[in-house]
Amino acid sequence: MQAGIVECGWGPVIAGTRITIYLVLHYLENGRSPQEIADLYDLALEQVQAAIQYIEEHKDHVMGVHKEIEAEIARGNPPEVEAKLAVARANARKKMKALLEERRRTNIHESNGERDSPRC
What we know:
Radius of gyration: 23 Å
Shape: elongated
Number of strands: 2
Largest sheet: 2 strands, antiparallel
Number of helices: 5
Structural class: mainly alpha
Low-confidence stretches: none
Mean pLDDT: 90
Distance between the termini: 44 Å
Oligomer: single chain
Helix content: 55-70%
């Protein structure tokens, strides 16, 4: 595994992954140890340490961007996105309800010894 940091379109990431240094920073700020972060994302400890070193070497810039990211998260989604999410959630609930109802019907048939198709 590589233990470097590379710049990509969405910020500096641990080489060979899509894990940003900002994600590592988030976990560090919330009391996670480097080993816990490595275990959580199946990384070598050296990879997490490379991210920590990058954060320390570029602290002013990293903290500025991190603050912007946190502010954007706090603002939440714009109303048009929330509306689309509401529709998607409603559709997902309808689909799940239909699947559960079908499952319930299938279980009733099987408990009565009836089956629509043979089991292998």
